[in-house]
Amino acid sequence: MSGSRSPEELARERMERIEKAVDLKEPNRIPLFVFTCGDLLRRYATGYQLYFDYDKAREASVRFASEFPVDSLGAVLAAEGFIFALAFSDYPDIAPSIRFWSDPMHDALLDKYTRWPGRELPEDSILQFIGGQFMDVDEYGKLSDDPVSFINQTILPRSCLNLEKPGSAKANASLIRLGVEASRFLKFLSDTAVDLARIGTPSLPLTFAYAPLDFIGDFLRYPTGALLDIRRYPDRVKQACEALVEPIVKVGLSLKPAGARYAFIPLHLNEYLSPKLYREFYWPTLRKVIETLYGQGIRSLVFFEGWHDAHLETILDLPRGWGIAYFEKTDVRKAKKILGGHTCVMGGIPPSLLLQETPDRIREYVKSLLEEVKPGGGFILAPGVADIPKETPSENLKALIEAVENYGRY
Amino acid sequence: MARMPLLTSSCKTFLSGFLPSLDELIEAFIELDEIRVLSLVEKLIVEVPPADILEACRRATVVIGERFEKGEYFLSELVYAGEIFRRIMDIVLPRLREEVKPVATIILGTVEGDIHDIGKNIFKAFAEAAGFKVIDLGVDTSPDRFVEAVRRYNSEIVGMSGLLTIAIESMRRVIEALKQAGLRDRVKVIIGGGRVDEYARRYTGADEWADNAMLGVRKCKQMLGLKICPDLDLLRS
Fold first, then answer.
1. Which residues are registered as beta bridge partners of B105?
2. Whose CA, among A69, A282, A294, A398, lies 20 to 30 Å from B34?
3. What is the pLDDT of residue B18?
4. How many interchain CB pairs under 8 A, A with B?
């Protein structure tokens, strides 16, 4: 697959392949992108090592990319920690480095949002974000008035054991520890990107944003709490979502000077909502975030988790070429039909297909899928958002790569 | 369990001047009018047997489930319906003098290594509303705890929930443990969660799978050979 090209040439070619798809053009071949939160890499290291031992984690990413030459590997070996990025959104030098939490950062904060292998979970499992309810329904006003202060002063002391008493020696020490760990983590991320590039695997230059209603569901009111709030206190929720747009955009722009070109936005409550509720409570402020960033030259990589079928048409509200729509359970054939020529569609491979089927069946599946979605470009093949299980046979992953090579050429 | 009509016509006529009808409750519940549902239940509970109110709830949730499967209702409506049902139960349960005989018992839990419970809890609310007794083992449930609970409660169904892909492996291990304990043939097993599918069913060796709570409840009824919606025609009329 790599032929006689140098790793630099190979990495450039792969990146161009992805960017052409995002530009809604036909690259020389359908790009194959693989995303993991760790499960996939547990074939090389335990869960605990992946999140705690940066050298092992880096090695695991590189080993995967050498054994399975995909066009790009997105390994997020850390937990959802956007609330910290938002809390420090006025400090662009700090916000992005604490957007994800590694295990040592969890140790520094003792946050209640996440559970970790070798800590609260068995050593060889994967990290889990569970969130929680840390804001009372009567506090929506305070959130709307000044989200950043409210989160720093009220929410973080409730959601992180070590920050319980703001200004205490313990809290201050924890923040210093967090800073130390954050810079180690950033170094790990950039070292991994360099190592991957050395074997010809490019990494997407990412920054980060969030859907305002998800922010409320994930970090403040728990998803079910947010869903009940939109019934009982619709105006409060709307106001708070509006107020969150500005700090979220600030976080998104924080890595622009460092060359970030894609804002990673994972969606959570999208599949819970009816089209009516989605259009009323979720989409307007998410749309504002995506459009504002796009206006500043940052495209978005949105994980439309779960079923997004009922809301597909709303994506057409965005400017053409706004970014990448990564689907999990939504049929990418259908998405391509609706969004083709407007939005780059990504996804298409159910992880369970890779886990369960034979290499022949995988080749057949990829062949028939690509026949439909290939024409016109604007498509990136990827296992859909959910992780590829560790138990997935290597020959199946190889069959996937081979099938893209055989049937994905333009 | 009471059948339609819930109240005899003479009784209905007599009470109609004072009491709202159970049909009004069913309608308000289907439309997810929380405030109206609770005020109706507060009034009804004075005169109407609690079991009849539960039966009305069961009928309402059948229609809510139907709307979900038709794509008219979404998960947020199910979450809200589950919350409304919980609040009804808070009023009704303390007044329930005799136990309503459950349709069957389900041992339910999020499997080992996974601690997500939103889907499990929605399923639980709707399974209970459908007349199942649900033994909820919580999250991060080991295979041994599933086996122990099946023995203890002599349940008809084991329901395993999980969001993460690693949950699939845990589900397979539970079924393996049920086999080793000689219990596999005695229970029907259903796996549920946003990321389970037919592949996962085959891999784990479960009897059924569902990626949403309503489908899960329907499949539980199917597995036991129960009628899916016994009173639906009456409700539609």
1. B133
2. A282
3. 63
4. 89
- CB–CB contact A122 B197 (8 Å): no
Instruction: Report pTM.
Output: 0.89
Angstrom distance (rounded) from CA A70 to CA B195: 24
How many CA atoms does the CB half-sphere of B228 hold within 13 Å?
10
Residue B112 carries which side chain, given as an amino acid letter? E
CB contact under 8 A, B165 and A387: yes
In degrees, to the nearest 5, what angle opens at C-alpha B25 toward C-alphas B23 and B27? 70
The partner residue sitting opposite A130, judged by closest CB among B34, B79, B115, is B115
Range list of β-strands (E), chain B:
105-110, 133-136, 157-161, 188-192, 208-210
pLDDT tens, A149-176?
Answer: 999 999 999 999 999 999 999 999 999 9
A242 interfacial to chain B (CB closer than 8 Å) = no
- Residue A325 tokens, joined: 């729509």
B153 touches chain A (CB under 8 A): no
CB–CB contact A388 B75 (8 Å): no
CA–CA gap between residue A263 and residue A302 (Å, rounded): 8
The ipTM is 0.89
Measure Cα distances from B229 to A394, B66, B80, B222 in Å: 45, 9, 21, 11
Residue of chain A with shortest Cα separation from B142: A122
Q: What is the pLDDT of residue B213?
A: 87
Cα dihedral sign for A89, A95, A101, A103?
negative
Q: Count of CB atoms within 10 A of residue B46's CB? A: 9
Burial class (CB in 10 A: 0-12, 13-18, 19+), B23: middle
Task: Spell out which residues of chain A touch residue B114, defining contact as CB-CB under 8 Å.
Answer: 128
Question: A351 vs B34: CB contact, 8 Å cut-off?
Answer: no
In angstroms, how far is CA A285 from the centroid of its own chain?
18
Instruction: Please state, in angstroms and rounded to a whole number, the distance separating the CA atoms of residues A343 and A379.
Output: 9
- Cα separation of A232 and B34, whole Å? 9
A56 vs A47, A49, A199, B24, CA distance in Å?
A: 10, 6, 17, 63
Instruction: Say if the Cβ atoms of A224 and B200 lie within 8 Å.
Output: no
**Angle at the Cα of A284 from the Cα atoms of A278 and A290, rounded to 5 degrees:** 115
CA-nearest of A309, A353, A303 to A327 is A303
Chain B partners of A357 at a C-beta cutoff of 8 Å? 199
Q: Is residue B35 pLDDT above 70, yes or no?
A: yes
Cα A117 versus chain centre, distance: 20
- Read off φ and ψ for residue B59, nearest 5 degrees: -65, -40
Percent of residues in chain B assigned helix, strand, coil, to nearest 5? 55, 10, 35
Q: What 3-state class would DSSP assign to A322?
A: coil
Point out the residue among A128, A230, A356 whose CB comes nearest to the CB of B164: A128
- Between A366 and B93, name the one with better pLDDT: A366
Structure tokens at B181: 């304990």
Query: Rounded to whole angstroms, how far apart are CA atoms A366 and A383?
Result: 11
Q: Which residues of B touch A306 (CB under 8 A)?
A: 194
Chain centre to alpha carbon of residue B217: 6
